[in-house]
Write a structure and sequence with these properties.
The chain contains two helices and eight strands; from the N terminus they run E-E-E-E-H-H-E-E-E-E. With 164 residues, it is α+β, with helices and mostly antiparallel strands.
């Protein structure tokens, strides 16, 4: 009887199986303006890479700076008045209520200044994470309002697959 022999060897085997699904970035976010104003610096162009903390938007802050200067003047006036009333109270020429009112004016001016500073910080928007600009919705020179989208950012460092 005839016998056939074969030499055994290992070889690679690759099998492909297709599944319907969607590939999406690990993070995708629409970034919006916090304050209104004329756009001085707009997001980078679509497809450009951004790092966490990169400037995406800067709006004109002239009005906010003017408000801060006005409030600084009011704060200085309130402090001078408080010091005068305190001095008069130490001499028995002002009531405790007058001292409290003068102190309240200083506190109110200080809080107004803090509020204006928050408004000033809202004139810039920075990238919340590193990624790419997928869509750009504004250009320099346009006027923007609070909550208006300025760009959509995506992070392709990790891709999430949703497969059926």
């Amino acid at each position: 009887m005839a016998v056939e022999t074969m030499k055994i060897a290992s070889q690679s085997f690759t099998q492909f199986i297709e599944f319907p699904g969607v590939a999406a970035p690990v993070e995708s976010r629409r970034v919006a303006a916090e304050a209104s104003g004329k756009v001085l610096a707009a997001p980078p162009e679509e497809g450009e890479q951004v790092k966490k903390g990169d400037l995406l938007l800067r709006t004109d802050a002239k009005v906010t700076r003017a408000q801060i200067r006005l409030i600084d003047s009011q704060l200085n006036t309130a402090r001078r008045e408080y010091n005068r009333v305190k001095k008069l109270a130490s001499q028995g020429l002002a009531t405790p209520q007058q001292v409290d009112q003068a102190k309240a004016q200083v506190d109110q001016a200080r809080l107004s200044r803090e509020q204006a500073k928050v408004g000033q910080s809202a004139t810039t928007v920075r990238s919340p994470f590193a990624g790419y600009v997928a869509s750009k919705f504004i250009e320099a020179g346009e006027f923007i309002g609070p909550g208006q989208p300025i760009a959509e950012l995506i992070d392709y460092s990790t891709i999430v697959l949703d497969v059926t």
